[in-house]
Amino acid sequence: MKILITGANGYIGSALTKYLAVDGDHHVVAQSRTRVNSLIPSVVSVVIGHIDSNTDWQKTLHGIDGIVHTAARVHVPERDSQAALAYFLAVNRDGSLNLARQAAQAGVRRLVFISSIGVNGSHTEAGKPFTEYDLPQPHNNYALSKLEAERGLLQIGAETGLEVVILRPPLVYGAQAPGNFGALCRMLKRGYPVPFGSIGNLRSLVALDNLLHFIALCLVHPGAANQVFLVSDGHDLSTCQLVAGLRQVLGQPARLVRVPVWILLAAGKLTGQSASIERLCSNLQVDITRARELLGWQPPLTVAEGLSRAVGEGAA
Question: Residues with Cβ < 8 Å from 83, sequence gap 6 or more?
Answer without folding.
Answer: none
